[in-house]
Amino acid sequence: MGGDTSRTEPRLRTTAVVFAYDEEATLRRSIPALLASSVEEILVMYGGQDGSRAYLESIRDPRLHLEFEPARAGKWRAFNRAIERVRGEVVFLVSGDISFSPTVFDHLLARFEPDVGVVFPRVIPSNIRGLVSRMGNALWDVHDFQIVECARKGLPVHGGELQAVRRSLLEPIAGVINEDAYLCLRAVERGYRVLYDRECVVRNTVPENLSDLLSQRTRVNYGHRQLTEVGLDPSTLDRLIWSRPRVCLRVLTQAIVHRSANAVRLPLLAGLELIALARGNRDFTRGVEYGRWALIRSGKGGPFPAPTRDPASAASDK
Question: I need a labelling partner for 23 at 20 to 30 A (CA). Which of 47, 70, 162, 315 fits?
């Protein structure tokens, strides 16, 4: 790669790609923030029968480009179409159901040095109002501390919801479910660093009923098994508990110290995760198609809280 890795690169051209399906309510929260940002090109890959199309087509901004998907084909297919169109040197891959300040993109972009391939922010759930969503919140607490510990130990780190990715690392993917982890692991394979910007915060939604949470975790575990089968090495707790038990114990301890209620939530979450892991492995072995998974509906409709601080500093948790 070459170059002086001790300083940030000159300003790089930017593109944001938003992925959404039947998510008008969430698009009405994420698109205005994108339009208020410094991102130079915004591509929205969307579909569905709700009001998304009418809303997006009502926006007049030369940076905004739309691709409507008449029939749902799966995120990985939308990803492959999107990377053919983007022109930015750094591409922000944005889940349609997150909330963020317009300055989040500049903050992530500032972390790029010549040897950096991917930067991703910390995620904090926004809809914590019941037992299941609190279990989801505990999961994100564990995810946060897991990434920090893995980075400290020199283990691979990966995360999604919003990623800033060097354009040269974007390549067609065939049926990959956890494309966020895939991109991070492939970046490391190609000699780039992957950075977790913990001080940069975005907010997402978590499922609010047990069925949705189990479905989501089954899909994620299926995706991790898929990555393992192609020779990649995702840093997941079910693997760390055998290979790095001290790291695993430290992560769980930190999650409980951070939020005492996690002492009750984590055992419940562990039980659900074991079921999801078994189901994900079963479905992978059976060759179940996960390219078009069932949409998660719970937790999507409520308004996001207005950011109280710049995303460069972590907001206080519930």
Answer: 315
DSSP string over 254-273:
HHHHH-TTHHHHHHHHHHHH
d(Cα 45, Cα 114) in Å, to the nearest integer? 29
CB-based contact 71:50 (threshold 8 Å): no
* Start-end of H helices in the chain: 24-35, 52-57, 75-83, 104-109, 131-152, 179-189, 210-229, 237-243, 245-258, 262-286
What is the torsional sign of CA 243, 123, 133, 211? negative
**Could you read off the pLDDT of 237-276 as tens digits, one per residue?**
999 999 999 999 999 999 999 999 999 999 999 999 999 9
| Mean pLDDT, residues 39-60 taken together | 91
pTM exceeds 0.85 for this model: yes
Question: What distance in Å separates the CA atoms of residue 74 and residue 48, rounded to the nearest whole number?
Answer: 12
Q: In which element (H, E) is residue 49 found?
A: none
- Residue 152 CB contacts under 8 Å (≥ 6 apart), including other chains: none
Q: Provide the angle, in degrees to the nearest 10, between the axes of the packed helices 210-229 and 131-152.
A: 30
C-alpha to C-alpha distances, 48 to 54, 67, 81, 118, 232, nearest whole angstrom: 11, 12, 17, 30, 33
* Spatial separation of the C-alpha atoms in residues 318 and 315, rounded to whole Å: 10
